């Protein structure tokens, strides 16, 4: 792909973007509605959780929603919009076509809206349920910081850029499945549906960015970044073990051994399968662009369990 071949998906942004054209979704909460989909809660298959009372399992779903919403706020305001700002600056990848530099501001605006609306829903659920969110730093930020600090300063913007590319080319099961689960509160389903619609356009932008950028990178740099990508995907998709541990510890009367429950979740096939399923769109993009043609890079994906 060449810069002249960029196809903007934002020509109807004023009409299609959530923050530009759709109302705030604030459907009233319904009695008995789930606050998150049990199918999407990584703990819900654990025997100790299945044996818990309805009230405890409901509270766990509220916490799962909080973790998802806080993840969204910190992702959008953090690495994704930091990279949007960087991409917009004239000195960074100056060969990017002008329409891409324009579109990146539209993504920046969308993401700020997603963060605000997620934050608002979190407050509304707290007011409705009285379930207090745990204080935590999302795991992906810790992982990203570790990846970042392991590299020389010259590589760090690239690490963050590829983190943004990976996260923006994955539309996770949470966003696509939540709207379809009739057991979930309408306000939660509507938020996920509107967010997923915007992310479909972002996906197209970041896929094209990858297709422009990857072939322009010198081979040793492709090998270096390619070898880091499995950790980037893992950082983004693996369940937030420390946060889930804190959630279970906040219910000491109900869960005697939180560490064992989280370890069981992490070792389960369900968790591994979930990551692989969610990673598919990005893995397809990497395969289509020949990333796995370099044996050391393919080996890194094999070692991480991301390639069959
Ligand atoms: Fe978003
Ligand atoms: Fe996005």
Question: What's the layout of helices and strands?
Answer:
Blueprint: H1 13-16, H2 18-21, H3 47-50, H4 54-88, H5 98-129, H6 139-149, H7 156-169, H8 173-177, H9 186-213, H10 219-237, H11 241-249, H12 258-267, H13 269-288, H14 295-303
Helix pairs in contact: 4-5, 4-11, 5-9, 6-7, 6-10, 7-9, 7-10, 10-14, 11-12
The structure holds fe (ii) ion (FE2) (2 copies).
One fe (ii) ion (FE2) binds at residues 80, 111, 168, 199, 202.
Description:
InterPro entries: AurF/CmlI, Ferritin-like_SF, RNR-like. This protein has 308 residues and is an all-alpha fold. The chain has one domain (52-303): Ribonucleotide Reductase, subunit A (Orthogonal Bundle), CATH 1.10.620. The protein contains 14 helices and no strands. It has helices at 13-16, 18-21, 47-50, 54-88, 98-129, 139-149, 156-169, 173-177, 186-213, 219-237, 241-249, 258-267, 269-288, 295-303. The mean pLDDT is 95.
- The run of helices and strands is HHHHHHHHHHHHHH
**Assembly state (oligomeric):** single chain
Number of helices: 14
CATH superfamily: Ribonucleotide Reductase, subunit A
Structural class: mainly alpha
Q: Which percent band covers the strand fraction? A: under 5%
Helix content: 55-70%
CATH topology: Ribonucleotide Reductase, subunit A
Distance between the termini: 28 Å
Strand tally is 0
Write down the overall mean pLDDT. Answer: 95
As residue ranges, the low-confidence spans are none
- Mind telling me the C-alpha Rg? 20 Å
CATH architecture: Orthogonal Bundle
- For this structure, what is the CATH class? Mainly Alpha
- Ligands bound here? fe (ii) ion
Shape: globular
Domains, number: 1
**Biggest sheet character:** none
């Amino acid at each position: 792909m060449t810069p002249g071949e960029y196809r903007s998906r934002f020509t109807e942004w004023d009409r299609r973007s959530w923050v530009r054209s759709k109302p705030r979704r604030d459907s009233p909460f319904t009695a008995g509605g789930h606050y998150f989909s049990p199918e999407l809660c990584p703990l819900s298959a654990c025997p100790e959780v299945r044996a818990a009372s309805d009230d405890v399992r409901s509270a766990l779903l509220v916490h799962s929603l909080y973790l998802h919403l806080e993840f969204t706020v910190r992702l959008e305001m953090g690495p994704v919009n930091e990279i949007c700002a960087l991409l917009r600056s004239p000195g960074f990848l100056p060969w990017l076509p002008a329409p891409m530099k324009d579109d990146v501001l539209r993504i920046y605006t969308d993401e700020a809206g997603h963060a605000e609306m997620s934050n608002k829903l979190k407050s509304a659920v707290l007011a409705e349920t009285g379930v207090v969110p745990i204080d935590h730093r999302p795991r992906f930020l810790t992982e990203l910081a570790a990846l970042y600090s392991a590299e020389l300063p010259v590589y760090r913007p690239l690490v963050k850029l590829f983190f943004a590319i990976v996260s923006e080319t994955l539309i996770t099961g949470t966003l696509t499945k939540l709207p379809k689960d009739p057991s979930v509160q309408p306000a939660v389903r509507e938020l996920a549906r509107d967010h997923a619609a915007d992310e479909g356009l972002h996906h197209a932008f970041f896929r094209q960015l990858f297709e422009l950028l990857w072939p322009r990178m010198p081979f040793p740099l492709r090998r270096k970044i390619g070898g880091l990508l499995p950790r980037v995907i893992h950082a983004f998709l693996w369940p937030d073990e420390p946060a889930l541990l804190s959630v279970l510890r906040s219910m000491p009367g109900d869960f005697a051994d939180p560490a064992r429950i989280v370890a069981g979740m992490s070792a389960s096939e369900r968790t591994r399968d979930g990551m692989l399923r969610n990673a598919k769109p990005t893995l397809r993009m990497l395969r289509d662009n020949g990333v796995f043609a370099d044996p050391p890079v393919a080996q890194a994906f094999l070692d991480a369990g991301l390639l069959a």
